[in-house]
């Protein structure tokens, strides 16, 4: 039965969708990072797995609250697998990563469906198969091991302290509810301890030879265990104890600090974090399937040389040394990077439609200001107060425009992070090793620009991996590192954003492109040595491809034409540089915003025209000797040895002049598009003006 949403409920649902999308995106990036750790054979960050666990745990709780059974079901299954991973019952591998990424893809589709339909009904993407795959990962509880909240056999075949027995014999719903008056004390302390553990495990992953990181993580884990016991949160204390034993085995040298071990510890940490988050929401600290996780941890911790007992004794002694009265404030201070979410700017969610309406209003104000200015210019009498008021209006309108524009600006980080997943998937299919380096992801652009550059980035990166980066063995023969490198960089230059995608691959094959172009009669056979710019521009032609065969990734000749078309829609341009054997760089030059731009007003007889300032290269006067009329009637201007076609706007638009304009009387405005330049011939330049770009209203109908 579908949940019927009232107006207030819809706001909650929309907020849930938005927050879940952001969380899924972060989880996806964390998963890709974990996969790179596994491939490199480094230690896995248990904090990362804990973060992913918390993500799905939080989504599950919210989904249950607002009545989304399918969402709850999928998150519960995913959470269960992650719970086993973070508890060490299963070792994280690439298969896990692939399935979790499929879950992220499924959730993105489901969230889009929820945003549009406000219901899970009608969601046709097959989810049952994915749920079955998740079920295959889940290690079932041993029969009779846990029943009605009590264990029938001990966790280890050795003696325990009474306190430890009490903890391990507690059921999932027995003694796991934190008293309300202690929530405010436990949650922040637990959060800091978990952050400290996570940050030191990440540091240890990069510097496994440094024992200090393991010591700090072990001490923080022990403190969290003691604090959980004091608050009667038995499940958290139990998992912390076993996680501490595992950390101790690494610290004592009984286990190597491998990538698999780090992934294992981080996965366990995620389960603890989820339980702490559940307590913060007023729930219990129970950890579903904890026994299976503990069993896996015990199997992982077991070391043939010395067994578990020594590790157990070491951690127990460490616990006694610290004691229950250990002052939590005496623990070593973690770096600022350990607490990325502690101090952030306050933000509010604003409906995009409201921002669009605001921009429309600003546009109308700009138009009104322009009309008022023209009125002032044509006034018969000089009125000082009018000029003063006009200047004040102009100042306020400019500030309002800048504010409205800034509200629409969003960082490229979200879009760039998605490209990590793309590069990961394509390189995996191509059997290549590719490192994507992102720079300048905090550069901000108008949200409408983001929509238009997403596809171009996808196509460029796909080509970089599939066509540019060589196979590892080929790269090594060339003296290159086995791992290819792609740099995705953004920066603001003046009034535009430049996004550069550079790879260190084989570069474009000039001769192959030229041969294919001649084969398709795109270049004359007589033109044997065309310039690089002309050759590179050919790859933006629809259907053009030099691939020998069509693959699931590329080879159909579509992609780069999409890049050019989408970038041109937002008045941008594409530049390409390539060097054989060294790589290719493609730069997208796009405006900061597409709503209001600076332009140059020009007069053609009695008509006014405008060209965006970014498109203007220069303005100049020309003499008759600088102009040549070709056989087809086209006039070209010779500007410093380069022939540029001249466009007479009056002839193009059928403007009837009372008096002809002599070629050396007007002004020539040189403007450029992506791969060509033109020269507009106008009567005069009026000056720079802000231009509002908006479609004509529908009631006007179709006009030329």
Task: Please give a structural write-up.
The chain is α+β, with helices and mostly antiparallel strands and 704 residues long. It has helices spanning 7-40, 46-66, 69-86, 94-117, 128-137, 162-168, 180-206, 211-230, 234-251, 259-280, 290-301, 309-322, 352-378, 384-408, 413-429, 447-468, 472-477, 510-519, 532-537, 560-569, 649-652; strands at residues 146-147, 150-151, 409-411, 434-439, 444-446, 484-493, 496-503, 573-579, 583-591, 596-604, 607-612, 616-620, 627-629, 635-639, 642-648, 667-672, 677-682, 684-692. It has a six-stranded mixed β-sheet. Helix 1 (7-40) crosses helix 15 and helix 9 packs parallel to helix 11. The longest helix has 34 residues, at 7-40. The protein is globular and about 95 Å long.
C-alpha geometry: globular
**Approximately how much helix is present in the residues?**
40-55%
Distinct helical segment count:
21
Structural category = alpha+beta
Low-confidence parts, pLDDT < 50 over ≥5 residues? 143-176, 303-329, 331-346
Strand percentage lies at: 15-25%
Radius of gyration: 32 Å
Mind summarizing the main beta sheet?
A: 6 strands, mixed
Terminal CA distance: 53 Å
Strand arrangement in the largest pleated sheet = 12-16-17-15-14-13
What's the total count of β strands?
18
The overall pLDDT average reads 75
């Amino acid at each position: 039965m579908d949940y019927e949403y009232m107006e207030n409920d819809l706001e909650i649902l929309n907020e849930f969708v938005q927050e879940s999308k952001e969380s899924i995106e972060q989880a996806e990036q964390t998963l890709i990072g974990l996969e790179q750790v596994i491939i490199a054979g480094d230690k896995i960050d248990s904090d990362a797995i804990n973060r992913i666990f918390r993500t799905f745990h939080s989504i599950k709780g919210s989904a249950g609250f607002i009545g989304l059974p399918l969402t709850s079901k999928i998150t519960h299954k995913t959470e269960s697998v992650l719970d086993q991973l973070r508890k060490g019952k299963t070792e994280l591998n690439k298969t896990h990563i692939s399935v979790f990424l499929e879950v992220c893809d499924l959730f993105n589709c489901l969230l889009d469906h929820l945003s549009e339909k406000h219901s899970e009904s009608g969601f046709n993407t097959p989810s049952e198969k994915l749920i079955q795959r998740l079920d295959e990962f889940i290690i079932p509880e041993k029969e009779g091991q846990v029943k009605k909240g009590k264990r029938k056999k001990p966790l280890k075949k050795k003696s325990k302290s009474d306190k430890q027995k009490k903890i391990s014999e507690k059921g999932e719903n027995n003694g796991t509810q934190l008293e309300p008056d202690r929530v405010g004390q436990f949650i922040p302390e637990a959060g800091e301890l978990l952050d400290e553990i996570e940050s030191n495990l990440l540091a240890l992953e990069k510097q496994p030879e440094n024992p200090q990181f393991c010591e700090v993580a072990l001490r923080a884990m022990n403190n969290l265990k003691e604090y959980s016991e004091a608050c009667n949160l038995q499940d958290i204390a139990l998992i912390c104890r076993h996680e501490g034993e595992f950390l101790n085995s690494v610290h004592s040298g009984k286990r190597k600090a491998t990538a698999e071990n780090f992934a294992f510890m981080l996965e366990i940490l995620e389960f603890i974090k989820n339980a702490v988050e559940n307590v913060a929401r007023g729930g219990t600290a129970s950890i579903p399937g904890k026994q299976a996780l503990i069993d896996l941890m015990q199997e992982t911790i077991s070391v043939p040389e010395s067994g578990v007992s020594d590790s157990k004794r070491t951690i127990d002694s460490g616990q006694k040394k610290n004691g229950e009265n250990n002052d939590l404030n005496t623990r070593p201070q973690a770096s600022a990077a350990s607490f990325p979410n502690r101090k952030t700017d306050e933000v509010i969610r604003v409906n995009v439609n409201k921002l669009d309406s605001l921009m429309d209003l600003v546009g109308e104000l700009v138009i009104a200001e322009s009309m008022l200015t023209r009125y002032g210019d044509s006034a018969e009498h000089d009125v000082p107060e009018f000029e003063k008021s006009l200047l004040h209006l102009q100042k306020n309108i400019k500030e309002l425009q800048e504010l409205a524009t800034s509200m629409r600006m969003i960082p490229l980080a979200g879009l760039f992070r998605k490209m990590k997943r793309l590069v990961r998937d394509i390189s995996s299919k191509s059997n290549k090793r590719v490192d994507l380096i992102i720079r300048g992801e905090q550069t901000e652009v108008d949200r409408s620009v983001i929509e238009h550059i997403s596809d171009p980035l996808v196509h460029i990166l796909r080509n970089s991996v599939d066509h540019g980066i060589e196979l590892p063995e080929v790269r090594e023969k060339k003296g290159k590192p086995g791992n290819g490198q792609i740099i995705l960089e953004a920066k603001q230059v003046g009034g535009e954003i430049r996004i550069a995608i550079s790879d260190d691959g084989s570069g474009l094959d000039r001769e192959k492109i030229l041969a294919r172009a001649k084969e398709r009669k795109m270049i004359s056979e007589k033109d044997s040595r065309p310039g690089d710019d002309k050759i590179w521009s050919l790859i933006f032609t629809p259907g053009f491809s030099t691939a020998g065969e069509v693959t699931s990734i590329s080879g159909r000749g579509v992609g780069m034409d999409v890049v050019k078309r989408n970038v041109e829609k937002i008045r941008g341009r594409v530049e390409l540089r390539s060097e054989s054997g060294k790589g290719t760089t493609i730069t997208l030059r796009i405006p900061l915003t597409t709503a209001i731009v600076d332009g140059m007003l020009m007069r053609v007889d009695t008509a006014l025209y405008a060209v965006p300032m970014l498109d203007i290269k220069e303005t100049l006067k020309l003499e008759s000797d600088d102009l040549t009329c070709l056989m087809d009637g086209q006039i070209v201007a010779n500007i410093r040895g380069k022939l540029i076609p001249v466009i007479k706007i009056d002839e193009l638009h059928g403007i009837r002049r009372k008096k002809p304009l002599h070629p050396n009387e007007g002004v020539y405005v040189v403007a450029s598009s992506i791969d060509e330049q033109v020269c507009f011939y106008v009567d005069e330049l009026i000056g720079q003006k802000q231009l509002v770009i908006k479609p004509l209203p529908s009631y006007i109908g179709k006009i030329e």
